[in-house]
Amino acid sequence: MIKASIVGASGYAGGELLRLLLGHPEIDVHQVTSNRLAGTYVHGTHPNLRGATKLKFTTVDALEPVDVLFLALPHRTAANDIEKWAQLGEYIIDLSADFRLRDAAAYEKWYGKPHPAPDWLGKFVYGLPELHREQLKGAKYVSGVGCNATASNLALLPLAKAGLIERVVIEVKVGSSEGGNKHSLATHHPERVNVVRSFAPVGHRHQAEIQQAVGPIELHFSGTAVELIRGVLCTAHVFVNQALTDKDLWKLYRSTYKNEPFVRIVKDRGGVYRYPEPKILAGTNYADVGFENDPEGKRVVSISAIDNLMKGAAGSAVQSMNLMLGFDETAGLGFVGLHPI
Amino acid sequence: MNATCPICEGEVEIAADVMAGELVECPDCGSELEITSIDPLTVEEAPEVEEDWGE
């Protein structure tokens, strides 16, 4: 068994990661840290894990070396101490935004401060298997992915790979767990419930990750918080540089995703769920992707849905780990979701 | 045996004992398809159900 620990396991992404690793056939979870909660059972914080483990949180200072060290820390914390983490884990997977961007200048532009460890940026592989599967195999250091960026990247990938995008306007609708478990007035129940709230009409940081993935095309991004706990629905209005037929689009999407274990094309003429819908993806690592061709012009509406804590965070991290260590890529990620939910 | 969906070009599995006129569904796009010939095997998009104004 491979020994793994999670640094910063008290948050939602850390808890989701722990849930997945406890069910993983190749992984023995060694330690999980939270300085604030050290000495308490993890099921006190993640009640769904009661009976699944008797682990207690430890402090960061009590960490012992392991094969795989997951970092689920606030942004900049991973990068500030990267030399220390590298002493503790042979393989590192960082779920924060610290090592997602390859370019230190882009990091400073979008995160407002110089990168704390720019020399390390080139050592990390961006942890989205649909983009970097071959680089992930055998990689030692992998960054997690932004949830909104993942939904957007998977919606755009078939058209971007084919060089068909002239410009794109992306709108994501997101659930409250994207905001993490630190509360504020905005997350207070009377203020948060029933919202359809524009929280980032422009300037969302994940735009940098999307741009990095799809290249130098004109790209616009807006985010709206909606009445969901888990889930992202991405609607990308893609203005293409040539007219396309439905069959062209089927061909493109199939050729991009036919061998992907966690991407499903959803564009159905019948049934209730005709396009991707995050509701039925809760707890799964699937990304559902669909499209519709606007007969009025050169616009393709590309749609994707994910669970932000899974494909948008912990699920992609485990999928990446499976590739890094040569496991079955789908190990520990077999849950197909619930219906009705 | 397999047929190709005329709508999305997906692969549609056809039972060996299928008969002309039977309806099948494309697993990819959900289109309803009609078996229009067995030998050679051909499928077409099934016509929508229409109102019967003749009565």
Describe the structure.
The complex is a heterodimer of chains A (341) and B (55). Chain A is an alpha/beta fold. Helices cover 27% and strands 24% of the residues of chain A. Chain A folds into 2 domains: 2-123, Rossmann fold (3-Layer(aba) Sandwich); 147-308, Dihydrodipicolinate Reductase, domain 2 (2-Layer Sandwich), CATH 3.30.360.10. Chain A has helices at 12-22, 77-80, 82-88, 104-111, 129-136, 147-161, 189-192, 206-214, 246-257, 310-324; strands at 2-7, 27-33, 57-58, 66-71, 89-94, 125-126, 141-143, 165-174, 197-200, 218-225, 232-240, 263-265, 287-294, 299-306. In chain A, helix 5 links the parallel strand 6 (125-126) and strand 7. Chain A is globular and about 60 Å long. Chain A starts with a strand and ends in a 17-residue tail after the last helix. Chain B has a single domain (2-45), classed as Rubrerythrin, domain 2. In chain B, the strands form 2 sheets. Chain B has a 3-stranded antiparallel β-sheet, with no helix packed on it. Chain B starts with a strand and ends in a 10-residue tail after the last strand. In chain B, 0% of the residues lie in helices and 35% in strands. The model of chain B has no long low-confidence stretch (mean pLDDT 90). Chain B is mainly beta. The A-B interface holds A 246-247, 250-251, 254, 265, 267-271, 274 and B 7-10, 25, 28-32.
